[in-house]
């Protein structure tokens, strides 16, 4: 902590200092919670993540692996047939246990990043599903929902980005329906790792050896590389949401109605993108604030946006009410403390979230 | 589009300390039944928590609350709004939780459904799941545009558009036929409205299923009940809701004649809804594979709950229900929901046939391996010749008698027998009727 901010904090009421201190510890706790989730997926322990979340994670990972399996096999088969290796192609397509079984046995479900990404997606979905009903509009005016309105914006960049988010959310909402791994890609490093693992599992389940096995490996490696060549991190829904937030680029005054409406429309990812853009942090960090049951960092982030008390109350209430792990009464207790912290002090208290995720992970590793 | 008026909105005002200053009659009755009153804090903890939270946050809050006393469960939407002088509280919904029903139409639809969709309040599409690709080549291009750009909505046989009726009534719809403009294929859309805290329409989430040709025997075969439910329930609920708002004079006073007509419509509509429920059950219990769970239950508890569910109806009819004491227990084996349904039917009949001011006795006893609940009334009784007939399908002793489909006792007895028990009756004309519902005794639940 810099001397300036240390001095700043000394001026704060004790409750506010304690809140900021808890928020500072939240990064470590979040990483520890992820470890717990991973242990559970591996060990099938019943405690730390609930059944619905675990089922959602497993369904998603299943869908990814199955989609990757089908895609790689299709591409490699075409290559093998072009190389006049029909027997190898046949072996690749012979009935066999699904790749996911093999990968799960080999520790796929202990991949912290994969579990973290799917966990965050599942939790955001549950958050959207469980939001309490929104207040009735007082103007009696019936207007299209936020993303629909933005998709009709005269600003073509805004319109195109909003259409991209609408389409991406549609693909993601139907997690059980993932038909291509590129439909709703994972972060690129993760996606890359997953494709290679599936390719390895595909080779392992054939009885081939010698030259035939090498031919298959070459074909699958090419299939992976072609798959990856078509992808960039910009295809992720998170990236589309950030592009939209950047295209809107609203000032502090415009942000409040927008960010509240995103939540009212049950679009937590858009909410996260607006928050991330407003505070100049990566969207993954903002998403983490939405799914972390310890609320302090989120309340501080909202305060850092200089949102008024009633807006923070409404946002906090909706999120806390929707997430059974959160304590809405504790939020109500903390609200006045949060408001006692000046926006710039709050911004500095959550500044660590602006750092790249990888670096924060490294810091958390060192602190253990 | 104007939101339809809430039929049963009740208001109250509270002071800064959370004490009740004033309340509409039904809300006040609720408070008084729970031991509260004017000038006192609210007696229901969930309501107190809601008011406390809204006060501390300084914003209006709406929550779906479940208020339960010893035996009845009431579900409602409660909204607390801080004001300068304290708080206003509005309760809407007032739904007594009923015994569960076998056929849940939405579930059926979801099972057979092809893919998901959603739209906002202006019916612009906000979600199309990837499987929609089979019908719409590029779902992404359809998003953000009006639903009617992608689908031509087609009227059902009665000339109605279920989806638009659902927008007006704020109720789920099924069976909206739609022609996909791109693929020229037919779909059935069903959906559930998303509502804001005041019940205003915020859009639909739903599923779309391809229309499969009906087999010749399908209408009367399996699934008849579900179809009946689907095609009758929505229009009936709409009739009841509209007539209900007329009879509540929400749009201004009505001439006495018309008020009477509106109440008749509500009564007749509810009767028909009950009939739909019965027919759906009938179809289920007459299937060869019909089976009922046998789990340890407490029949005395079931009877108490049934009596609690009917407390409002009994008080409207000025009938007193004398139910098993809270510490009585009758362990037996059966299905909780089905046993509750049987008890509600028997006690409901007893209330219906009781004169004003009379009592209905609900007694539990264990008798040679049986857990028995006896429901006795002071009505006009049933002649010995009629006693066998009342359990027949569509049996009505006096066709002029209002209410009832003639299916309730038939269904109840079938359910009782499916659980290894039975229903018996003993009565004499002019002496009231005593129905005994028994289930095989079981281990303590």
Question: What is this structure's SSE topology?
Answer:
The complex is a heterodimer of chains A (368) and B (445).
Chain A lengths: L2 H8 L3 H30 L7 H32 L3 H8 L5 H7 L6 H19 L15 H6 L4 H18 L14 H17 L5 H20 L7 H12 L3 H13 L3 H12 L3 H9 L4 H9 L4 H14 L5 H12 L3 H7 L7 H11 L1
Helix pairs in contact in A: 2-6, 3-4, 3-6, 3-9, 3-10, 5-9, 6-14, 8-11, 9-10, 11-13, 12-13, 13-14, 15-18, 16-17
Chain B lengths: L9 E6 L4 E4 L1 H9 L11 H13 L3 E8 L4 E11 L2 E11 L8 H8 L2 E6 L4 E4 L10 H4 L4 H4 E4 L7 H8 L3 E8 L5 E10 L5 E10 L13 H24 L8 H30 L9 E4 H11 L1 H6 L3 E3 L8 E4 L1 H17 L6 E9 L2 E7 L7 H4 L20 H11 L3 E6 L5 E8 L5
Helix pairs in contact in B: 6-7, 7-8, 8-13, 9-11, 11-13
Short recap of the structure:
The complex is a heterodimer of chains A (368) and B (445). With 368 residues, chain A is mainly α. Chain A is built from 19 helices and no strands.
What features would you describe in this structure?
The complex is a heterodimer of chains A (368) and B (445). By secondary structure, chain A is mainly α. Chain A has helices spanning 3-10, 14-43, 51-82, 86-93, 99-105, 112-130, 146-151, 156-173, 188-204, 210-229, 237-248, 252-264, 268-279, 283-291, 296-304, 309-322, 328-339, 343-349, 357-367. In chain A, helix 8 runs antiparallel to helix 11. The model of chain A is unreliable at 43-47 (pLDDT under 50). Chain B has 445 residues and is α+β, with helices and mostly antiparallel strands. In chain B, 33% of the residues lie in helices and 28% in strands. Chain B is built from 13 helices and 18 strands. In chain B, strand 9 and strand 10 (186-195) form a beta hairpin. The chains are: A mainly alpha (368), B alpha+beta (445). The A-B interface holds A 132-137, 140, 142-145, 147-148, 151-152, 162-163, 166-167, 169-171, 173-174, 177-179, 183, 265, 309-310, 313-314, 316-317, 321, 328-329, 332-333, 335 and B 1-3, 49, 53, 56-64, 77, 115-116, 120-122, 124, 126-131, 139-140, 143-144, 195-203.
């Amino acid at each position: 902590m810099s001397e300036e901010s240390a001095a700043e904090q000394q001026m704060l009421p004790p409750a506010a200092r304690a809140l900021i201190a808890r928020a500072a510890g939240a990064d470590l706790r979040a990483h520890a919670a992820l470890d717990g989730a991973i242990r559970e997926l591996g060990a099938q322990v019943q405690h730390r993540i609930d059944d619905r979340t675990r089922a959602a994670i497993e369904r998603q990972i299943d869908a990814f692996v199955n989609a990757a399996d089908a895609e790689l096999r299709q591409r490699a088969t075409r290559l093998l047939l072009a190389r006049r290796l029909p027997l190898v192609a046949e072996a690749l397509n012979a009935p066999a246990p699904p790749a996911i079984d093999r990968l799960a046995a080999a520790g796929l479900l202990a991949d912290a990043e994969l579990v973290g990404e799917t966990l965050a997606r599942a939790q955001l979905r549950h958050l959207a599903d469980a939001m309490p009903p929104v207040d009735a509009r007082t103007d009696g005016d019936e207007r299209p929902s936020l993303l629909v309105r933005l998709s009709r914006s005269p600003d073509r960049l805004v319109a195109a980005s909003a259409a991209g988010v609408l389409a991406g959310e549609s693909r993601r909402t139907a997690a059980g329906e993932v038909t291509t791994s590129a439909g709703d890609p994972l972060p690129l490093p993760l996606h890359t790792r997953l494709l290679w693992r599936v390719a390895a599992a595909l080779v392992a389940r054939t009885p081939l050896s010698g030259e035939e096995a090498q031919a298959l490996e070459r074909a699958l490696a090419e299939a992976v590389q072609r798959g990856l060549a078509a992808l960039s991190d910009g295809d992720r829904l998170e990236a589309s949401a950030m592009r939209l937030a950047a295209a809107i680029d609203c000032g502090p005054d415009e942000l409040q109605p927008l960010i509240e409406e995103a939540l009212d429309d049950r679009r937590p990812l858009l909410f996260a993108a607006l928050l991330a853009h407003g505070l100049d942090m990566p969207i993954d960090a903002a998403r983490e604030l939405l799914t972390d049951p310890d609320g302090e960092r989120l309340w501080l982030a909202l305060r850092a946006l200089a949102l008024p008390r009633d807006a923070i109350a409404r946002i906090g209430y909706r999120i806390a009410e929707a997430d059974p792990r959160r304590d809405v009464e504790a939020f109500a207790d903390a609200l006045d403390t949060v408001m006692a912290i000046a926006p710039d002090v709050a911004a500095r208290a959550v500044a660590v979230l602006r750092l790249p995720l990888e670096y924060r992970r490294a810091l958390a590793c060192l602190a253990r | 589009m104007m939101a339809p008026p809430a039929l049963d909105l009740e208001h109250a005002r509270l002071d800064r300390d959370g004490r009740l200053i004033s309340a509409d009659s039904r809300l006040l009755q609720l408070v008084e039944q729970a031991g509260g009153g004017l000038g006192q804090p609210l007696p229901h903890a969930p309501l107190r928590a809601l008011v406390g939270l809204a006060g501390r946050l300084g914003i209006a809050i709406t929550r779906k609350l479940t208020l339960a006393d010893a035996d009845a469960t009431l579900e409602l939407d409660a909204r607390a709004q801080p004001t300068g002088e304290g708080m206003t509280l509005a309760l809407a919904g007032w739904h007594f939780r009923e015994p569960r029903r076998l056929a849940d139409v939405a579930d059926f639809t979801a099972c057979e459904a092809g893919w998901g969709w959603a739209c906002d309040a202006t019916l612009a599409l906000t979600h199309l799941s990837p499987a929609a690709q089979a019908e719409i080549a590029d779902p992404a291009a359809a998003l953000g545009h009006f639903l009617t750009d992608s689908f031509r909505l087609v009227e059902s046989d009665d000339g109605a558009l279920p989806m638009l009726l659902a927008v007006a009534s704020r109720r789920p719809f099924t069976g909206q036929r739609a022609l996909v403009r791109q693929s020229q294929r037919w779909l059935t859309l069903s959906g559930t409205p998303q509502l804001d805290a005041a019940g205003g329409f915020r859009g639909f989430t739903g599923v779309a299923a391809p229309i499969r040709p009906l087999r010749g025997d399908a209408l009367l075969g399996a699934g008849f009940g579900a179809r009946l439910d689907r095609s009758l329930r929505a229009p009936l609920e709409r009739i009841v809701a509209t007539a209900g708002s007329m009879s509540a004079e929400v749009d201004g006073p009505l001439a006495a004649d018309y008020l009477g007509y509106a109440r008749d419509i509500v009564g007749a509509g509810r009767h028909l809804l009950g009939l739909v429920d019965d027919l759906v059950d009938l179809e289920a219990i007459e299937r060869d594979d019909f089976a009922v769970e046998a789990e340890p239950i407490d029949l005395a508890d079931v009877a108490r709950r049934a009596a609690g569910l009917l407390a409002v109806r009994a008080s409207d009819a000025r009938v007193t229900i004398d139910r098993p004491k809270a510490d009585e227990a009758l362990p037996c084996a059966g299905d909780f929901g089905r046993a509750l349904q049987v008890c509600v039917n028997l006690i409901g009949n007893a209330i219906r046939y009781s004169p004003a001011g009379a009592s209905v006795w609900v007694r539990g006893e264990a008798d040679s391996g049986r857990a028995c609940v006896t429901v006795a009334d002071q009505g006009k009784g049933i002649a010995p010749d009629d006693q066998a007939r009342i359990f027949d399908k569509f049996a009505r002793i006096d066709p002029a008698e209002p209410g009832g489909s003639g299916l309730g006792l038939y269904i109840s007895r079938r359910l009782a027998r499916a659980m290894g028990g039975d229903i018996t009756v003993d009565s004499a004309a002019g002496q009231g009727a005593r129905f005994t519902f028994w289930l095989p005794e079981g281990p303590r639940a």
